[in-house]
Design brief:
It contains 8 helices and 6 strands, in the order ααββααβαβαββαα. It has 234 residues and is of the alpha/beta class. A 6-stranded mixed β-sheet has the order 1-3-2-4-6-5, sandwiched between helices. A hairpin with a 5-residue loop joins strand 5 (183-185) and strand 6 (191-195). Helix 4 (79-90) packs across helix 8. The longest helix is centred in the last third of the chain and has 20 residues, at 210-229.
Length: 234
Amino acid sequence: MRAVRDQIIGCEKCPRLRGYCQEIARVKRRAYRDDTYWARPVPGFGDPFARLLILGLAPAAHGANRTGRVFTGDGVGGSGDFLMAALHQVGFATLPTSRDVDDGLELRDAFIAAAVRCAPPGNKPTLDEIVSCLPHLAAELDALPRVRVVVALGKIAFDTFLSLLKSQGLATKPRPRFAHAAVVRLPDGRTLIGAYHPSRQNTNTGKLTPKMLLEVFRAARQRLTEQRGSGGFS
């Protein structure tokens, strides 16, 4: 995993994204004017023995692009806090917030990654940028051999994971459609669960509520429990 992390951090495949991240780090947001921004591709974070993989979209410009840790530092009540509150309640996270890389947060039996590793302008990566990042996700997944359940936060993450499987000869037919709480049994025996992304756009409008996200991770926990109980995982 350390070698995978180093490869992600050193990636320069997407000039548009690299230029945008560096410009954000130069200009900064007033609240973070004294901070030194990470401004590099962001690797995944979590338990190397995780059975749960959580896949997001991309680093936030002043969140993970600033702190260097996925879903971290995007403000009080931001997507990191919203996600971590649910993970904490189900026992996957030691803290209900994600504010700073030195906050002591640890993930237990869970690992968080992103479909795209650099903050994209307008939170909208291009298809080419998503494809360019696929090898990073594949490498992290190879380094996480215990993963049995994947929770994809948003349609892009959901479709990205299916594209990765297709590239590995594990296409699911017919191709599943994204929906919140959709559960898909994958050809390799793993389970993919869809969830709305905990962006402020979704959480502030009530499209995604704390209860809705909590139910998704409770379902993920239940799947892991069933697989262990049936002898499908050791």
